[in-house]
Each structure stands twice: as C-alpha cells, then as structure tokens.
Design a protein that fits this description.
27% helix; 5-stranded antiparallel beta sheet; 7-stranded parallel beta sheet; alpha/beta
C-alpha cells in the first residue's frame, strides 16, 4: 500500500471521483499563509519555493487542496491584503516562474490550488491609485476608486462619520482636499465596482490565474464590493439597524451581478473554476453567494463563532446543511484561520459570563495571563471538534498549524507586531499576529526549521515540542490524528447526507453517514457509552466501549 505522500498515492487522489468538476464539494482545503509557512531563501519570510519544498508534507497530510493567502506584491500594511499588482508575485516570495513550479508540483501530488483574491480594495501603491492621486478630481483615474468632497469649511471634514473596520475614520484626505473611502486600512482604498473598467480588469485577473492552472478562488470581503453611496451620505447612526440588503456598504443585492459575470468566466474552463465567498452575512443571505450561478460556495463561520455546546453545534449543522440544499452548493466548516484566535486556545478559555463565544481577546491583551488558559483541555476539545467536523458532509477548511495542535502565540513584544488593528486600536485590540507566527518544523534551530536564520514574527520556546519533527511517528500526536482522519474521511466519503442518532444525554451529539458509519462527540463532563460497532478512530483514548469527555469517535455501526 502506497504512503499518502508517494507519487502513486497522489495519482490515486487526482483520479478520485471527487477530482472532477465537483471536487470542491467535500474537499479538505488547507490554508497556507505564505509568509509564515516555509522560508527557502533564509530572509525570515516564507516564500513560494518554501511551499514547494513542503508539498510532500501536504501530500502526507492528505489534503485535497491548498488555499493560498495573498502572495501578490504588497507593502504588508495588512499582511498582504493590500495588493499592489493582482497579476504578479511579491518579489520577497518569488516569481511567476516559482508560482508555476509550485502549482505544477501541487497538481502532480493531486492537490488543487485556491488563490486568495482581494477585490474590495487595492493597495495605495497600486498603479491605478497612484494615477488617481496624480489626476484631478472628477477624472477617469479617480473614478476607479471612491473619492468625495469633504464637509464643512473648505471640505476639511470627512464626507461622513464612518469608522473603518481597523479603527479610526474610514476616509483619508489627499493633498488637493478630496477624501477617499477605505473600509479597512488607509493603505487599502476601496475600488469603485460601479466602474466598468474595474469589472473588466478583474475578469482579466481571473483569466490570468486560471490560465496558469489555479483551480479556484477565495474571495475576500465578498459582501462588500457593491455600494450605494447617496448624497449626502448617511451617518453611522442612520446606518444602525438597516436590514439585509439595505445597507449602502455591505451585502447589497447588486453584488451578485458581479459574481454572475465571474461565473461565466469560470465556466470557460474544464473543469470549471470554483470560488468560495468570505461573506459575513446573515445565514439566510449566504445562499445567494453560494448559488451555482454565482461564486458557488460561501464560508460558514457559525461553528467558528459557536460556544462549545452540543445543542448549539447540532442547530448550526442542521441549519447550514439546509442552507446548502437551498443554494445547491455544499456547506463549509472551519474553526481557525488567519483572522481569529486558534481554536485550541479558544476552547481552553472560560466562556464570558455575559454569554457568547470566548474569542480570546482579553487573554491576548493580558499577554496570555488572564483569564487562565487550560492548554490541555483546549487541545482535547479542539481535536474532538475537528474530528466531528471532518465527519460532516461538505468541505472542511483547515488552517496551517492546527494539525500540530498549535495554540495562539500571546508572547509577542509590541515592537514586533505587524497587524494594523494593533496600531490603530492599541490597548483595545491586540491584532491577529498570534495566529500568523511562522510554523515550527523542527525541535530546535533559530526558527524551528522555518528557515535558515530567524522568522519575521518571534516564535515561542514551546514551539519545538509541537513541531512537525516532534510529532512525526507518534500515534497519539495531533499530526497523526489529522493524517488518519483525512485518509479515513476519503475512504468513507459518500453522499452529502447525515441522519441524526438519538442519544440519552443532551451533551452527546451523534449522527450517521451513508455507508454505515457514525460520529459521536461527548461535550459533557462525564463518560458515556458508545453505540454498538467497530471503533474506526477517536480523538483521544477510548477503552471498554466508553467515550470520555471532550472526545469524538468514528464507528462502523451495525
């Protein structure tokens, strides 16, 4: 039998029934934040050659696709989400030739590539924005962005009192007195999607990367492109309480005209290119983004935001499967990504007294001291939740390092931080650097095997004990659990259906999948009997037919 990383295994993966036009429906997709994955040239920043060198590792993990976070030229004002050129590679990460070698090697291993696309805003260093600043108000160059005259004497006040997502005003004044809109950082001016030139240029971008073999796109801020900006602009107070589809900046119905045009481009390819929307919208609005005539799939962050609770998990799973049926898409499941505290840490922190999920904000602001983190419980629960997720119909999105059981890194000195949310909200938000620290590949070394000499964010001393090298070959490691789960998931995968099984405890969740196997998760504080059947896999030790607390098991049932 071939190992998962062997060329034969890769060929088998590429030839699976799921490798055709619908490969994405139940894919395991691994997110790579390229600057923090592997550094081949030793400059402290991860690069494309580093990713290529780790493709055997990705193949051995058993993922179906890689989602590559932005790799474009960028000043890194927002971790690469400030794009200077949508059709090139950041020189610090490599070249287009390096990209071509990487995608060819991924495809040879049977792994697809999903590229991050950032269409809501460009960088302020983009050639279009430089031209806009050099041109006069009312010019075609400025019409590619959202410029407005200011209010008050001499236009000295911003056009509205809106605040950016990263804190501070959402408007920035330029030397001639006009203001431009930036819903994120000032280095990220919002594009004007009412402008046909903007739409046409992104179609060229879609074709540029699709022609190079990109299999799909993750669309950043997919709910933000279409805007309706009246004169005068509404105030923040007037925006409060506006229902779905009525807000001038978010989740407008017109955005789907853009994605219908993109879908026509996707269908030009064989197999058609795919897309998944990052759309923070009401659940009943998500279906339009995931419609086959639109992007085709949309992220669900419901489990990511949920408390660790059986009833809440069951409701979210049932609702999302219903939404997927409504859209004709498959649902997505995710617990961690480059924007949130890692779930091994979230699950080890107490739930706030006022309810709602613990995001880890207070813990990070304290430098990882308060409230107390139960690292073992957090990892145990994260392993259990992930094994449950991998049993669900739909696609599973995994974030680099979660397969090692990595916790969030809290011990980052202020002088080393990079996230704009920290600089614009110091003392209120600590930023997202803690989940973006470069991965540990070896037990020791100046960067734990990330590169030859250091890393762009400081790594904690405890990284060596949870490195790839430390976990390789240990059956109880989180890395071994992920490998076994992904391999078994591939073999067990069937129709996108599940049937709930009754349990005698509210804290126990169980469902059966086609093919006669089931998943059982014990959220409660006490052990519970397992159903009759053959134990296939468990997230922790299981003995005598009893499932311990914070543990998930897969069983072949009679």
């Amino acid at each position: 039998m071939a190992l998962a990383g062997d060329p034969v295994a890769g060929a088998e993966r590429a030839g699976d029934p799921g490798a055709g036009a619908d490969w994405w429906r139940q894919a395991a997709v691994y997110q790579i934040y390229p600057r923090s994955y592997a550094d081949a040239n030793g400059d402290g920043i991860g690069d494309l050659a580093g990713i290529t060198s780790r493709i055997p590792y990705l193949a051995s993990l058993g993922v179906d696709a890689v989602w590559l976070s932005p790799f474009y030229p960028s000043a890194l004002a927002d971790g690469g989400y400030d794009v200077d050129d949508y059709r090139d590679v950041d020189p610090r990460l490599g070249t287009l030739d390096d990209f071509d070698r990487m995608i060819a090697a991924l495809h040879d291993a049977g792994i697809r590539l999903v590229a991050d696309l950032v269409p809501n805003h460009s960088s302020d260093r983009h050639e279009w924005f430089r031209a806009a600043l050099a041109a006069a108000p009312g010019s075609p160059e400025r019409a590619r962005y959202i410029f407005r005259d200011g209010l008050g004497p001499h236009g000295a006040l911003p056009p509205s009192d809106w605040q950016s997502i990263f804190g501070g005003p959402a408007w920035q004044r330029v030397p001639d007195g006009q203001w431009y809109l930036h819903l994120f950082a000032p280095e990220q001016p919002d594009l004007n999607w009412d402008n046909p030139e903007v739409r046409a240029d992104f179609v060229r971008t879609l074709r540029f990367w699709s022609d190079r073999g990109v299999d799909g796109f993750r669309v950043d801020v997919a709910h933000g492109l279409a805007k309706r900006l009246t004169d005068p602009l509404p105030s923040t107070e007037e925006l409060a309480g506006l229902g779905p589809g009525a807000h001038p900046l978010w989740d407008r119905d017109e955005v789907h005209d853009i994605y219908a045009e993109w879908r026509r481009v996707f269908q030009e390819y064989d197999p058609p290119r795919t897309a998944v929307a990052e759309a923070w919208v009401e659940p009943d609005r998500r279906a339009r983004y995931a419609h086959p005539e639109g992007l085709g799939q949309a992220f669900s962050f419901d489990l990511l935001e949920a408390d660790y609770d059986a009833a809440g998990f069951r409701r979210i799973i049932a609702d999302n499967l219903a939404f997927a049926r409504k859209s004709g898409s498959s649902t997505t499941w995710v617990f961690s990504n480059h924007d949130v505290v890692r779930h091994a840490t979230r699950y080890g922190l107490p739930v706030p007294a006022d309810g709602g999920p613990q995001k880890g904000r207070e813990w990070l602001l304290s430098g990882g001291i308060e409230p107390a983190l139960d690292r073992e419980r957090g990892l145990r629960r994260a392993r259990a939740a992930t094994l449950l997720m991998l049993a669900l119909p739909g696609s599973a999105y995994l974030y680099q390092g979660e397969e090692l059981g990595l916790h969030e890194v809290a011990e980052i000195p202020d002088k080393d931080r990079q996230d704009p949310t920290f600089f614009r909200n110091a003392g209120v938000e600590i930023g997202r650097d803690g989940c973006r620290v470069p991965l540990p590949w070896t037990r020791d070394g100046s960067s734990f095997g990330f590169g030859a000499d250091g890393a762009h964010l400081p790594q904690p001393t405890w990284f060596g004990a949870v490195s790839v090298e430390a976990e390789e070959g240990h059956d109880a490691s989180t890395l071994s659990l992920y490998r076994r789960a992904l391999a078994l998931r591939r073999r067990l995968q069937g129709p996108e259906e599940l049937r709930w099984r009754d349990t005698d405890r509210a804290s126990v969740l169980a469902f059966e999948r086609p093919g006669g196997w089931c998943a059982v998760m014990n959220f409660g504080p006490d052990a519970t009997p397992l159903p009759e059947g053959e134990l296939l896999l468990a997230s922790g030790p299981v003995a005598d037919g009893v499932l311990p607390p914070d543990t998930t098991a897969w069983l072949r049932v009679r």
